[in-house]
Each structure stands twice: as structure tokens, then as C-alpha cells.
Amino acid sequence: MQTSLSVDQVCELVKRQAPMVLLDVREADEYAVVAIEGSVLIPLQQLEADIPKLDLPKDKQVICVCRSGRRSSMAAELLRSKGYQAVNMEGGMRDWIKHRYAEGLISEDDFVTMSTFLGPYPQ
Fold first, then answer.
1. What's the chain's Rg over C-alpha atoms?
2. Which end of the chain is less enclosed by CB atoms within 10 A, N or C?
3. Is residue 96 one of the residues assigned to a domain?
4. Which of 70, 67, 46 is nearest to 116 (CA)?
């Protein structure tokens, strides 16, 4: 079973409107600055307790998203252990905004603002 997808793969699924759930596991303040349209916010610390309330479909892929991919990897692992088809979006929102900027879908000003908020990339 595939455990992660690249940002390119996720963008392609979004373009095709593939049946999936985009689950953002960042904190509310992070989500408020930049989020993928149509995503659902459940911070990682609340995820396990909230799984029964989420009504997540087990027959659709759940793509977990965070800032860099670390928290979303943990979320995907947790969801897989509960029987969900969950994967991690590698590179997180950092790579998402880089990709969207390269496609011309984010202005330079917005890209700078979002990049500043998301923090520096690891060396």
C-alpha cells in the first residue's frame, strides 16, 4: 500500500477531482494563513479522539497534509492503523505553495507572505 504522495501527484488528483479527502492536521492559526481549498482541518493532537466524529470514508483516499510532512505522516500512519486508505503529502504546504506558485496560481506577494509564515526550508 502506498504511504505517501508527492505534491505533483496530489495536484493532479485535485485537478481531476478524484474522490478523496484532504485532511489538514496543522493548527488553526496555520490553516488560516494558507490551506488547500476543500480541505478539512483537524489538528493532529485532536485527530485520534475525533476520528469517530469525522465520518471519514474508508473507501476513499485520505490525503494528510501539514506544513512539512512530519505531522501528516504521523496522521496517515494513525489512520491506516484504523483501516483508512491514508497517505501523507510529502513536503507539506511548503511544497504545495512552491508548486502552485510555479504554476502561476499564487501571486508573488502571496507566495512571499505564505513562505515567510511557513518558515525556512531545512538545509
1. 14
2. C
3. yes
4. 67
